[in-house]
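Supplementary Methods S3. Input chains for the assembly prediction are listed below.
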Amino acid sequence: MNEARHPLRLPGTAVLAALAMLFLYVPIIVLVVLSFNASDMTTIWTGFSLHWYAQALGNDTMLVAIGNSLTVAAAATVLATAAATSAALGIARSGGRVRTAVEGLLGLPLLIPEIVTAVALLMLFVLVGVRLGLMSVILAHTVFCIPFAYYPIRSRLAALDPALGEAASDLYAPAWRRFLRIELPLLAPGIFAGALLAFISSLGDFVITYFVAGPGATTLPVYIYGMIRTGITPEVNALSTLLLLASVAVVAIVFRSGTTPANQTRGEKTS
Amino acid sequence: MNDTIVAISDVSKRYAGAVQPALAGVSLDIRRNEFFTLLGPSGCGKTTLLRLIAGFGMPDSGQISLDGKLLGQTPPNLRPINTVFQSYALFPHMSVAENIGFGLEMLGQPRETVRSRVTEMLRLVRLEGMGERRPAQLSGGQQQRVALARALAPAPKVLLLDEPLSALDLKLRREMQIELKRLQTETGITFVFVTHDQEEALAMSDRLAVMRDGVVMQVGSPENLYDRPANLFVAEFIGEANFWNATCLERSGAGGRFAIGTSKAVMPVAEAQGLAEGAKAVLVVRPERITLGAAEPGLLHGTVETAVYRGSDLVVHAALAGGGELRARLPGSIAAAGLIGTATGFAFPADAVRVFPA
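Predicted structure tokens for the full assembly:
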């Protein structure tokens, strides 16, 4: 158990790791601390205050933006997760080259620069005649959320004994009952994780949203960007902290509800 | 008694990308209420055949019928056939009782019927009071019983078992062999059992089919296959045997006389159909049919190299005088000390020999 004495461990890695963690989290800590700053000046600390939270939460335009963000995230999550689940199940049943090709195509959007996807979607919407608004944002978010939702579901499915589905069919379950009673509950932790990733990705997206959002479809990140252009105020800090809190809360909730069924299936695999 | 429940006729199957077919023109009749075993080395097609009966995949050609009705493209959920999977495939998110009741539930049986049938099945597989547990809380042997109960609960016409005992240790496997045989007799359901373990197959089956490379090599009762193997593969795969190269010296009636190896030993054989005088052949003799005889020229003799006392019998290895080896299972009452290193004569009755063309 004495990991410090591990023979393959290079000296100084602990220091490097600590520095890396610092680099990752210092900006966020600074942001959170400054959101409680009493001063108008973002970077000069004058005293503790909840003033900026009150101002942020009393800002109606911003509340609309939060509402838009949640609507878009919820809709895109449901659509993307459903699509990703169907894709995972479908691909699992096909084999060989088809599988490799489709999996590659599904994952590719993760590697495409976001700006390319944004421009492409904008062009497509204009070409097809989709009016830019909340709907176009939901469609766009669904598109880029599918790969995020897909991978956790697929890895969950890969760990599942294919004989379980066969056993259900063998015991007289038609395809849809087999899905509802066997595959869906056993995939639930993966679907949860996929939905969570999709939700967080949608909630935080700026680039694609900025391109495809029409008037009245301002989401929170787009709104915050707008605020920054007129000078960074501690209100932005307060808002960002709230967004961070919301994300962490969602992760915590899903992580808790997701762990129990996952452990059960893994225990069963020992036979 | 000769009532066929599963008729397999000329079934072939080749998996995409495979060079060899998994099944090449298999025909079999499985009889009602029998314990039928598909036996063969891995890759012989036995599991493929089982999966085709269950409906997981369709034959490329040929027909499978159940109770006189062609199964054709009927999906697994519409076949009154249940399977015990090699991995058990118990539903991990359901209790033991929910697992066992799943089939009946899917068949739309009322809740009360399902509950009483589950209780009955738990008693049948001796897991009373375990209904509320999760599969992960059970031992391998118990999981095996749940898988059996789950497959038996809907009272299928045929129960398919895909190497269900392979994950169990030897002691548990022996127990389950007896248990399976008991369940089959008690329920009166036709069992089709797949295994690569010939001992298991001999112990449990009413009849068995030995398969190799997608072809059925022989079908018959365990006694029939053991005593009268139809070919060298079956003789080698089932039980132990001595295999000696021989030459046919003389044919008379059904039998003849054969010279073993390069020795001067000439042994009478009761049945030697299809072999002409002068033909090369392989003689097959089971070790327990060999007795001690006179060590004289013209008779089979050799030097005993090892003799292992095993209580009921004495297992003797000898180097034959004309080359080749002999393995005999003699009565345990014979003293090993007097045999080792000595030139010993061996004999066997003419009807103990099976002859195959070399």
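Confidence is low (pLDDT under 50) at residues 259-271 of chain A. The domain at 52-268 of chain A is CATH 1.10.3720.10 (MetI-like fold).
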